[in-house]
Amino acid sequence: MSMVYLFAAFSGLATLLLFYAVYRLYTELGSANTQYRDKPPRGFQYVWPLINILANSFGFLISEGRVQACLLRLRRAGQDYALTPHQFYAGKWVAALGFAGVGVILAGKGGGTMGALLGALLGFHYPDIWLRDHTKIRNLALLKALPFFLDIVTLSVESGLNLTGALQKAVDRCPPGPLMVEVNRVLREIRGGKPRIEALRALADRLDYAPISSLVSALIQGELMGSSLGPILRAQSDQRRTERFLRAEKLAMEAPVKMLGPLIMFIFPCTFIVLGFPIVMKFMQSGI
């Protein structure tokens, strides 16, 4: 009987030590200092302690090349102040585990292993898909806001302000968005002592987006040549507006082609059923 009590006592002590270890792991590694960082994406917020524990415990397994490549992608998506590369990879591991569990449930008893493998594969690549789609949406928002922003900068420069003052005036007048966030970052770097040309080059490298790179190249060339920035900015504004119009025209021309699939697969069969059902019923009633 004493052995049973001794075993129960050691089991209870082991359980308490396990809970204490989990609590210390959560308090020391499960939280991250987000006072000076942006909020993480919503999907990461749900499992944020687990992501931080994995990032701090197993982040050393990620090579430096992968970390730098992931950091570049996070910068293009505007998430470099919300996620570190280690946290992003930890999110991929957590998503793989979660999707593997869902795959096991959906596959049932017979295909549990295959469902887990497919779910883990999909979950591991889902954050990459989300990051790529988020980058595309952000670039589209940049393209839409760029012409009006350049118009304000052009008017400010032609009225006598320098480029830094014109950028600040445009930020004050334009609606908030990704472009304003990036221009504000450029202005903070300039106020912090960074040369304006270097701050603009950092903007182009950070976004890696053709319209922004073209604008930055034109501004840097104008700064170095000492030419007037008004005509350069006006030409850039006209070009961006033309590109936006051509993109809208391209999407409008692609719409009929994209509608063929739903038409053939869903709309046409329903239409044929509605039209053919009375005819078939009449044939059946007449004995044909």
From TrEMBL:
Main localization, broad class: membrane
Keyword terms of this UniProt record: Cell membrane, Membrane, Transmembrane, Transmembrane helix
Membrane topology per record: Multi-pass membrane protein
UniProt cross-references to InterPro entries, sorted A to Z: T2SS_GspF_dom (IPR018076)
The UniProt record lists the keyword Cell membrane: yes
Compartments where located: Cell membrane
Membrane-spanning parts: 48-67, 113-131, 260-281
Record carries keyword Translocase: no
UniProt feature coiled coil, ranges: none
Domain spans labelled Type II secretion system protein GspF: 149-275
Stated name of the protein: Type II secretion system F family protein
Naturally occurring in which organism (per UniProt): Roseateles subflavus
